[in-house]
Amino acid sequence: MERKYWLDLYTGKTWEEFIKAGSSVTGFRYRRRKLTEKIRVGDFLICYITGISRIIGILEVKSPMFEDHTKIWEDSEFPCRFKVSILYQLKPEYGVQIQDLKNDLTIFKRASTPHAWTGFFRASPNEFKREDGEIIVKAILDAMAKPVFKEYDDKKYKRIPKTFESDLGVVTVPEDDEAKEQIFIPLEEKLPSEEKITHEEIQWLLLKLGSDMGLDVWVARNDQNKVFNGNSFGLIPRIRKKMPRQFDEATNRTIELIDVVWLQGDAIIAAFEVEHTSAIYSGLLRMSDLISMQPNIKIDLYIVSPDERAEKVFNEINRPTFTKLKPPLPKICKFIPYSKLKNEIEQMGERIAYVRPEFIGSIAESCEPDEA
Questions:
Q1: What is the DSSP string of 86-115?
Q2: Is the pTM of this model over 0.70?
Q3: Across-strand partners of 190?
Q4: How far apart are the C-alpha atoms of 361 and 358, rounded to whole Å?
Q5: Predicted confidence (pLDDT) at residue 181 exceeds the cutoff of 60
Q6: Fewer CB in a 10 Å sphere around the end CB: N or C, the chain?
Q7: Which letter does DSSP use for residue 239 in this model?
Q8: Closest Cα partner for 101 from 143, 60, 59?
Q9: Class of domain 5-161
């Protein structure tokens, strides 16, 4: 059977705990169990340190997955475990910087924006393409043969994970200073396509996508007179002029302010909030209000945002105020990057009419914490 290559995420802290425990067992979160069951004896785990974005080791899997709640890591259990052995290891200061491989890895070649590749490194395990895995192993061997010292920010290496255990489960506690959370993107890295994307364009794409799939669509009450590229929102086929009155007045008014809603008949099947600027709260609060008022509501919820806002969305949605909802907002709300939405629509072309609405969930990313 052909060997597979898998991402194994660590912080500097969890990596050092792994080494201290004997470097013979690694683990993943329970909610990643279905993916871990695909990992086989002989597969390679590529050890990536978040914060400093470096690959510092390759593990070989020595056992099938087993469940174990023995305390190895201080902050989490990671109970879906494997016996492993270290094949290759680098100190962090000699690690392979992932961006140094951007001209070789398909992860970068497929990325439509400079930051789209980061989505692959937000959860583990995650399967690499075979050619990417082989390139990374070669880069590790080259770095071992000819070590090159590279400084790194020790605070980022040793940083406390942004996820915290509480009575509510795993939550995030973002910085008080909003400016500290902004992701700086040098002007020279921005693509023209990124600069031109607007809130109205994403709304238009979602409305037209729903309409082309044969669904009724709704645009936020205060956006119904908007225009994108000369096309009026109000003239989109199957646009609803009124929402079905199936809930109480407060719930209906909340739903009417959601950026885009898809309906099959009078049943709401998906709701989208487009968060274009640095403020993520408005859309999350509307969704939070909706869940608080209708905890049994069955609607797929999505936050659609620029690729580089992914971490911001993740941090905000995992605040305690959202995780304590029943059900928790991160569990039922997913994230869709601008680039992935646009790419999927472009690739479908005329096939959109034959696509089922459920496909949108397959391109969305979980908002639940997965980082080791």
A1: EEEE--GGG-EEGGGGTTT-HHHHT-SSTT
A2: no
A3: none
A4: 6
A5: no
A6: N
A7: B
A8: 143
A9: alpha beta
